[in-house]
Structure formats: C-alpha cells, structure tokens
Amino acid sequence: MSEAVATFGLLLTIVLGTRFRPAALPALVASWIFAAYWFTASTSFANPAVTVARALTQSFAGIRVVDVPVFVAAQLAGALLAMLVAKLLSARNLSRSA
Questions:
Q1: Which of 9, 13, 62 is nearest to 36 (CA)?
Q2: Percent of the chain beyond pLDDT 70?
Q3: Which residue in 47, 43, 38 sits closest to 59, CA to CA?
Q4: CB neighbours of 1 closer than 8 A, spacing ≥ 6?
C-alpha cells in the first residue's frame, strides 16, 4: 500500500507541478521523495526500475526478488490513480477558469 501511495504522490506532484509551478518542480519532487522515504515501509522505491535494482542488491533497503511483482503492481496502481486524479483536477480547474 505504501508503494502505491508513494508512486501516486510522486506522479501527481510531477504532473501538477509541471502544469502549475514548473519553476518549483525540482524542489517539489525532492520534497516528496524526502518525505516518502520516511513514511513508506520500503523507503519509497516509487519506480519499477529502482525496485528491480534494489532486489538485486544486498543493501539495507533491498527486497526479495519474489516480492518485486507485488511492488511493481502497487506502483502501477498508484500511477494509474495519479493520472486519473490529475485529469480530474485539471478538468475542474479548466471549468473554473471558463
């Protein structure tokens, strides 16, 4: 669940930050990753490539190879939900300005 939340927040931050505050995007993303590192059980992979890489390492933040599909599925669910919410928020914002 925490991976879905981490991915959802990261993508929503990127999509909405790009649209509404592009100059602040580096700080927004860094702030989200910093916070997600602390509030997720996995230290916020939020990226399938990072998930696979961490499965291949022996670090304290590594995961078992057999757990990769579940992490990636949660990341995909979070990404899809973030895109849906971003679309809804953007549509609502456009209707207010019209």
A1: 9
A2: 93
A3: 43
A4: 74
Nearest-CA neighbor of 45 among 72, 15, 81? 72
The larger pLDDT score, comparing residue 88 to residue 97, is at: 88
SS3 annotation, 22-60: HHHHHHHHHHHHHHHHHHCCCCCCCCHHHHHHHHCCCCC
How far is it, in rounded angstroms, from Cα 19 to Cα 73?
Answer: 27
Q: How many domains, the chain?
A: 1
Q: Is the pTM of this model over 0.70?
A: yes
CA–CA gap between residue 96 and residue 63 (Å, rounded): 45
Q: How far apart are CA 31 and CA 14, in angstroms?
A: 12
Q: Which domain holds residue 18?
A: 2-97
